[in-house]
Design brief:
The protein is mostly helical and 307 residues long. It is built from twelve helices and no strands. The radius of gyration is 23 Å and the shape is globular. The mean pLDDT is 84.
Amino acid sequence: MIKKFGDDQGPSLAVSLTYYGFMSLFPLLLVLSTVLGFIGNESISKGVLGTTLKQFPVVGEQIGKNAAHPLTGSGPALVIGLLLLVYGALGVAQAAQHAMAQVWNVPGVARPGFVPRLIRGVAFFGGLALGMAATGALGGLITIAGQNLVVRTVGFFAAIVLNALLYLAAFRILTPSSIATRKLIAGAIVGGIGYTVLLLAGTALVQHQLRHAQALYGQFAIVLGLMGWLFLVSQLTLYAAETNVVIARHLWPRSIVQPPLTDADERVLHDIARQEERRPEERVGVGFAPDATREATADADVRRSNP
């Protein structure tokens, strides 16, 4: 999985997800707080916003104090503003769809167009909203039941199941339809477990990151902590997606140092090359020379570089 993550330029994909996630977060919070403002129930608004901001350890509370204020104004202007905010926030959904297509090495010609991607992005946010509601309901049930060890243990495993289902739904929405749903289950389980554990450890991680940054950078420390958290979640999500690909395509064993290439290495290189197909009439082929030919070619390259 680590090898496949590197082959797909995973760090760059994680940085892209982090950037678009950061840029989309505040517009989405503004949309959410405005919609909740229309409902007019203060307890519901605080509960939903609180549940959402709990997904960002430590910095979530500070974000809520500064960013979770609803839009106001005339009806038509408010609707237009909300639509523009939603469209701007779709950047993270577009980046996530691109990341899933890269992980599965889907050829460019087989990837969905602009309108299908837009619809998938809206569906992705709808799934997130339902997930936040389910998470809030689970947290409320745990609070009502008490905070003894048994309740916490049951709540922990219930959170794993819920997060795994959310990952499965997200993978299904973001991954091109040519990939069967059954191939997304293993990564969803990995993501559900990883995210639940990461959320538990997140407070310590973010506090450690902010401990010295707060004194040096003040409010900028919130940005540093938030981006660090988003980067961790992005990497976890990509590794979970890579788990799906490695298991579905039996991409093991992989060689650390080449040559020689294993069969799995050749299949990955073949998929990466075919990924560049951009037109229906375009065909990209990949061939691998025998070991003796490879050695002769390598010797010739050395001689050309060192006459």
